[in-house]
Sequence to fold (447 residues):
Amino acid sequence: MHRRPFPLATAIAPVLNQVPLTAAVDVLVAGGGSAGCVAAIAAARTGARVLLVERHGSLGGIGTSVLDTFYGFYTPGPNTKVVGGIGQEVVDALTARDSAFIRPNTYGAGGGVTYSPEVLTMLWDELVTGSGADVLFHTTAIDVVLDAAGNVTDVLLATRNGLLRASAKVIVDCTGDADICARAGAGYDGAETGEPVQALTTTFRVANVDTDRARSFPKDELFELMAQAASNGDYRLPRQEGSIHRTPVDGVSLANMTRVEGVDPTDIRQLTRAEMDGRRQVGEYVRFLRDLVPGYEKASLVGLATHIGVREARRIHGDYQLTADDVLGARRFDDGIAQCGAPIEDHSGGTDTLWRYIPGNGVYDIPLRCLLPKGLHNVIVAGRCLSATHEAHASARSIAQCMAMGQAAGTLAALSSASRLAPRQIKVAALRSRLSADGAILGDPDR
Fold:
């Protein structure tokens, strides 16, 4: 098991009580991405006092700063819906505001919900604060305080007002990089431990697109054109496929094409270089589109991802590790708290992407045990830092599944806090019953 010390809390232990206490809550959610927002909403609606801390100035994470499409709500083939609950509430609200539509995936991986990131950003504000949860922006969880029993009692926060701390009965780690778990000494896999991690991507938006002409250009011809352009040495295109698609704004398309490989996203120097490399690549792909692809002759770059998109960093060591056999075998679990039908979509490197689909448009369960880090008694994770192998993670990381995990984690955290029982002591049947009552779509473990 990999353990990494984070000595700040230990170093300041003699004066810890002098660090201002900004909140004492039932549930602290670290990270305001899709998983964190839903976790905070679910916990607050279940009666907990909730604090959500987010290092940026807005909510939504990758879903508002990098992407514009939710994948994972539907399976390939018949487009069976596998995620509901708060996630579906978000989709319904976006649709009611004429800011979302369902779009086929370029690679046949099931319908995606394409939306306006700007509208979603405002919607998250409304839903999270409307649930009763408190929010702190520009606040980063940098360390934890552990008691002798292995419970996280406090989280140290770096803020514009200096170092603060928050105490909580239960912590939900939705940082994506498992920062809380790592700082508490839990085990994990990732680039730091020599494991492969997926490449990073900087997305971009272009305006003045002739959408009809662009959509009529076959994707196979687009990919062939990319390969030829790169082979000729005229363009530096490390990824020679990807997607560029229409958005809710006429004449504006979003591209998911760049690829930055070999990066440990938890290393600030590597991540800094990746940010710059991703933006440099954007310039090349825009030039390629304008020069060679029908419909983009007058395209202008109008938007860059707020930061580079990270697909994979740390994956915790949980009570259970989801595997590729579980995914491809459409396995059901007694403690399933979310469903997924997404294929394994591996961006580990090279010019293309590895796709492995679940036979027969199957669906598998994500078990609750994947959200419970070994050795930590009052910490739950949700989102892409779940306990999974590299291959299984490449399926389960879709945003719809992150939202479903967030709803389960937030609900469990609130039940744990109210009952004064550790999350592992809450009966799975009670959690599943509450999730079903709140609109979550759960699989039948007997199937």
